Amino acid sequence: MQSAKNLPNTAHDSHAAVDMVLDTAYQNISGSQWKELFSFARKSHLPEFIEDLFSGKHVNQSEDRPALHSALRNLSKSPVILDGQDVMPSVTKVWQRIDALCNQWVGVTDVIHIGIGGSDFGPRLAIEALAHVPDIDSRGMRMHFLANIDTADLNRILQRALPHSTKVIIVSKSFTTLETTMNANAVVKWLKNNGLTDSQVSKSLFAVTANVPAAQEFGIEQDHIYPFWDWVGGRYSVWSAVGLPIALQYGFETFKQFLAGAQAMDHHFKSAPLEENLPVIMALSMLYQQEKHNIKSYAVIPYADALDWFPKWLQQLDMESNGKSIDRDGKPVKYSSPVVFGSAGSNAQHSYFQLLHQGTEVIPIDFIAVREPMSNLPEAKAHHRILLSNLLAQAQALANGKKTDNPNNSYPGKRPSNLLILPKLNAFYLGALLALYENRTATLGALWNINSFDQPGVELGKVLAKPIEAALKNGGKVQADAGIDEVTAARINLFNQ
Fold first, then answer.
1. 45 in catalytic set
2. Average of pLDDT values for 213-229?
3. 350 catalytic residue (yes or no)
4. What is the 3-state secondary structure (H, E, C) of the chain?
């Protein structure tokens, strides 16, 4: 592993961990400013928060529970104590069951994975990203992800899947999520309509949930249910049995490598001094840009097509975790999560980079690069060189700008960015990448004094949807009442015409 001291830039510009390099040179933060930022982190009790996070303290105060997703990738099996009990035996048992299942599925052509939000983004990202790894064994199965309640997605999948060789994985922490249960019922109906007996359907269904009784009531056999726990948040759950598709598609050893990369990043986050700590440095650079530019959004641009789903995963991680206006003490916050957006470069350059270069808002960027090409094609090295040159050129142009006599052709510059370099993209470094951002997100929450592990803001819309759905089902003219305001009543009537 290369240390920051051996890197060519100044001590505050480049840092390395888990063979990944973070370069912050274009953040335009001086040495003295970094000292102030690290001092602020210590005054905010960040080291104590990190210790509490990994030791099982109830850092999710509103729900009175810990956030122990790090235990799910604790391959050392060292004890992780929660309320006086070691959770690792139950975690290890799930690993053993996943390993066994990978060896049992013979002749399976299709897997329909039904989940939404945190039950969908993580495994979908991993499946898509690892599909680009040269020579990886995909084990001959087609993995279909069904999240949207829109039946267009359902129809697309059911037209392609072969019912008699399909397995179904239903993923829901509560096993009461409306979209998931409706999609699951539709897939069960499709299996039966295609001639499967009740017994055959039962053998085709699997569940990942914290609500085992509800899964059993749905009709899923006990030994087909893979538990996870209330101390795991949905958006932090890909390391649990929620990541089952990774093992099924690419083998259990690949899943273990995914966990190992995350564990390595956790070890760095726990043990590295703040001044050398990648998640901390990334969090502090965000805080600096908020103070300097009052930023409202930031972009993450991976120059790797394999990571095109990464910004979508990060959107939920950041905005659901830290998109809050009230801190842990019930007081209004000055800053919280900016809006997150992004897509794979260099295609992104031809989409919204005009705004990044010449728009009125300063939007920080995380550029993500992979040293090695993602294919064995003869053209790979030449194409990859062009890809990296575009990344480096964009970062330089954003930082330095260009002054001309023609304002239309002038670039203001001073647009901050990070550069994160992965040595290659495989399961290990994908795991490390995701854990890096998870830990950065938790760090930001600690520095803002925000609870990064609850999401009360998503509940109100769910509650209001129930009387609206009933009104749409009824089909008659609707009047405003306590649950439906005048505007929504009028809109319902538009649909009911």
1. no
2. 95
3. yes
4. CCCHHHCCCCCCCEEEECCEEEECHHHCCCHHHHHHHHHHHHHCCHHHHHHHHHHCCCCECCCCECCCHHHHHCCCCCCCEECCEECHHHHHHHHHHHHHHHCCCCCCCEEEEECCHHHCHHHHHHHHHHCCCCCCCCCCCEEEEECCCCHHHHHHHHHHCCHHHEEEEEECCCCCCHHHHHHHHHHHHHHHHCCCCHHHHHHHEEEEECCHHHHHHHCCCHHHEEECCCCCCHHHCCCCHHHHHHHHHHCHHHHHHHHHHHHHHHHHHHHCCHHHCHHHHHHHHHHHHHHHHCCCEEEEEECCHHHCCHHHHHHHHHHHHHCCCECCCCCECCCCCCEEECCCCCHHHHCCHHHHHHCCCCCCEEEEEECCCCCCCCCHHHHHHHHHHHHHHHHHHHHHCECCCCHHHCECCCCCEEEEEECCCCHHHHHHHHHHHHHHHHHHHHHHCCCCCCCHHHHHHHHHHHHHHHHHHHCCCCCCCCCCCHHHHHHHHHHCC
Residue 150, C-beta contacts closer than 8 angstroms, at least 6 positions apart = none
CA–CA separation, 358 vs 158, rounded Å?
45
Q: Determine the pLDDT at residue 7.
A: 37
The model's pTM is 0.94
For the segment 161-197, what is each residue's pLDDT rounded down to a tens digit?
A: 999 999 999 999 999 889 999 999 999 999 999 999 9
Among 128, 179, 320, 438, which one carries the catalytic annotation?
A: 320
Q: Exposed, middle or buried by CB within 10 Å (0-12, 13-18, 19+), for 177?
A: buried
Q: Specify the pLDDT at position 280.
A: 98
Which one of the listed residues 381, 462, 466, 477 is annotated catalytic? 462
Look up 357 and say whether it is catalytic: no
Starting at the edge strand that comes first in sequence, how are the strands of the sheet with 110-114 ordered? 142-146, 110-114, 166-171, 205-209, 225-227
Model confidence pLDDT, tens digit, residues 241-252: 999 999 999 999
Average pLDDT over residues 428-456: 97
In which band, very low, low, confident or very high, does the pLDDT at 139 lie, cut at 50, 70 and 90?
Answer: confident
pLDDT tens digits along 346-372: 999 999 999 999 999 999 999 999 999
Pairing of strands 166-171, 297-302: unpaired
The C-alpha R_g of the chain, in whole angstroms, comes to: 24
Q: Which of 43, 331, 334, 350 is catalytic?
A: 350
pLDDT level of residue 103 (50, 70, 90 thresholds): confident
Torsion angle of alpha carbons 425, 428, 429, 435, nearest 10°?
140
